[in-house]
Amino acid sequence: MALSQSDTAFLEALVPGYTFISRIFLSYLHIDLAAYLQYFVALALFGVSMRYLSEYLTQFFETYLVCTAEMRLDDELFNYLMYWWSRRPNTKRTNHFLAGVRTNGYWGDDDDDSDNADSDDEDEEWSVVDGSTNAESFDDYWTKVINRDKYKKLRFTPAQGRHYFWYQGRLLMLERRYEQSGARWVLNNEKLYLSCLGRDPSILHKLLSDAQHKFVERDGSRTIIYRGQRGSSGSTFDWCRCMSRPPRPLDTVILDNTQKQLFLADIEDYLEKGTAEWYAEHGIPYRRGYLLSGPPGTGKSSLCFAVAGKLGLKIYLLNLSSRALDEDNLYALFSELPRRCILLVEDVDTSEITHSRGQSIFPRSGPSQADNSPSNTDNNSSPDEPGKISPDGKTEKTGITLSSLLNVLDGVAASEGRILVMTTNHPEKLDDALLRAGRVDMQIEFRLAISEDIENLYKSIYSVSKEARVRQSPRRVKQLQNGSEEDGESDDHKPNGVHSRRHELQSRIENLAKEFASLVPSGEFSPAEIQGYLLKHKDHPERAIRDVAEWVKEEREKKRAKKAAEIKAKESQGKKQS
Ligand SMILES: Nc1ncnc2c1ncn2[C@@H]1O[C@H](COP(=O)(O)OP(=O)(O)OP(=O)(O)O)[C@@H](O)[C@H]1O
Fold first, then answer.
1. What is the band of 485 on the pLDDT scale with cuts at 50, 70, 90?
2. What is its main location (predicted)?
3. Burial letters for 37-48: b for 16+ Cβ neighbours within 10 Å, e otherwise?
4. Which domains occur in the chain, in start order?
């Protein structure tokens, strides 16, 4: 079939190089492409229409015949599903997977915690090692620990792409997708899609709730701690699970018992059934705030963790000193808080909010000194604004100001039912506006250890409960029982031997505790300092008493030297300024 010149020109425009190609075909293969032109056109049309048809059918199928759940990386559900997947019995048979030894990425806990989380597996490993975990020397025990740590557990999660699997007799599909965000610092912008055939999504709900249960059961009674930090997007702040700890018994926090019980009773009353309705009926926002103040190492954070453990509440840790945190981020973090939780703001006096509402947050004389003079506020932005003008005229990020914090605490986004606990070493630095009732409803003052506290601290270190004895190394228990390394024969095998031995030990520790308390000056050392000393002698209660006078002398000497150095530094600073 001969083509006219205009037809050839048209084909050339449609398929560049057509003339050249058809000439080659004609000269070398004696094939006239023009003769087959109609077939090529039909094939191309068929291909294009098939493509459109398949896209349309896929879209139709996915819209009307498939249910899909989408999970984002910054949501906890993502972790639940990954955890569930890694624990599936069939996971090991998947031929396309992502393998690794780090669990932090998806389970959010530190190594310690993940160890705990996998205790079932570890029990297996331990029994494989030697079949027993009791009564072993330190060397045996340590060799096992080190060997186990060398071979970190391999984790398998689904690789990018689609994975088909059966769940309760239904065929489901899990798709893992990495999405381009355009931002180079966003490493893991991933999503999971879980799909099933049909328009009833109940099987997906069931699987997701199963995954959630498995994940939550793993935590048991542990206290879960979240931290407010930059999210995966890099610009916003999210609550990220950072660790979980075994609950701390309340009686291990040495504090005036009345204060401790008042604190606990107040929280329990606040969480009691009907309290939320009572607040609503009286038009009062359902929130409660506490300020725990006192010198460092006196047990403020410990009390908070112990109460969280007792009530099974999660702890949300917030560092207000972060320069990247602004009012919008704080607002978002508050609105993300669950209904019942403890929001712990530690060392609230170290952040910008110690500057009162009327004060400049960035005086000319230096960022750390507050100055009330109006002239100093002239060049600075309002304390209400998170940005401020530095002496070189540039705007700097300042973190959270007092006004921002108050706005967020009182704002509509501040979640109802939360318990705010702020800790400080310097309550006098805090503005009255922050401490007013409604924001801080109860203040607890922590003190340096008095004689009674010292006695209790000693007892809490050396008293060995039945359960703790089982967990502890036999060597340590033996040392405590005998009070010295020269050990006689244990009478644990005799009838009533264990009981009488424990009773004896307990009364011995009580007498020693009294003696210890009489040797340590009351109101001079923090519980943390005393605990630190006792830990050095944790297996030797008598040695702790024998050496304590020397320790007190050394500590006093250190403190005197530190104070002298501080006075000297202040004097030289004063001289420089004058
Ligand atoms: N009152 C106490 N009872 C029992 N242990 C205490 C007490 N105070 C401190 N400790 C021990 O000292 C350590 C530090 O305690 P914690 O962090 O609770 O002190 P803090 O008052 O919050 O200190 P900071 O003001 O420096 O944050 C912990 O290991 C804790 O067990």
1. very low
2. mitochondrion
3. beeeeeeeeeee
4. 5-64 (no CATH), 66-118+153-220 (no CATH), 237-445 (3.40.50.300), 452-561 (no CATH)
Give distance in angstroms: CA of 266 to centre of ligand 1.
22
Does residue 228 line the site of ligand 1, with CB under 6 A? Answer: no
Q: What is the DSSP letter of 363?
A: -
Question: Taking phi first (over 0 means left), then psi (-120 to 50 degrees means alpha), and beta for anything else, what does residue 125 get?
Answer: alpha
From first CA to last CA, the distance across the chain in angstroms is 105
Question: How far, in Å, is the centroid of ligand 1 from the Cα of 453?
Answer: 13
**Ligand 1: distance of its center to the CA of 297 in Å?**
4
Residue whose C-alpha is closest to residue 446's, from 559, 315, 304: 304
pLDDT tens per residue, range 137-181? 788 888 888 888 787 777 778 888 888 889 999 999 999 988 765
Alpha-carbon dihedral sign for residues 450, 456, 459, 461: negative
Which among 407, 397, 399, 356 has a CA at the least distance from the CA of 377? 356
Question: Helix (H) and strand (E) counts for the chain?
Answer: 22, 15
β-strands 170-178, 161-167: how paired? antiparallel
For the whole prediction, is pTM greater than 0.90? no
Q: Which ligand 1 atom lies nearest to the CA of residue 252?
A: 4
- Tell me how far apart the alpha carbons of residues 306 and 248 are, in angstroms, rounded to a whole number: 5
Q: What is the pLDDT of residues 360-398, one digit of tens each?
A: 333 333 333 333 333 333 333 343 444 444 445 444 555
Instruction: Give φ, ψ of 541 to 5 degrees.
Output: -60, -35
Q: Identify the helix (H) or strand (E) that includes residue 230.
A: strand 223-230
Query: Taking a C-beta distance cutoff of 8 angstroms, is the pair 505, 480 a contact?
Result: yes
By C-alpha distance, which of 15, 114, 534, 74 is closest to 336? 74
> What's the complex ipTM?
0.98
Q: Are 484 and 537 in contact (CB under 8 A)?
A: no
Kind and range of the H or E run holding 570 = helix 541-577
Distance from the Cα of residue 149 to its chain's centroid: 23
Contact 241, 109 (CB under 8 A): yes
Instruction: Say which residue the tokens 């981020």 belong to.
Output: 329
Tallying the residues shown for the chain, one arrives at 578
Q: Is the CB of 254 under 6 A from ligand 1?
A: yes
From ligand 1's centre to the CA of 248, what distance in Å?
Answer: 12
Q: Are strands 288-293 and 395-397 parallel, antiparallel or unpaired?
A: unpaired
293 ligand 1 Cβ < 6 A: no
Would the CB of 300 count as within 6 Å of ligand 1?
yes
Contact 1, 37 (CB under 8 A): yes
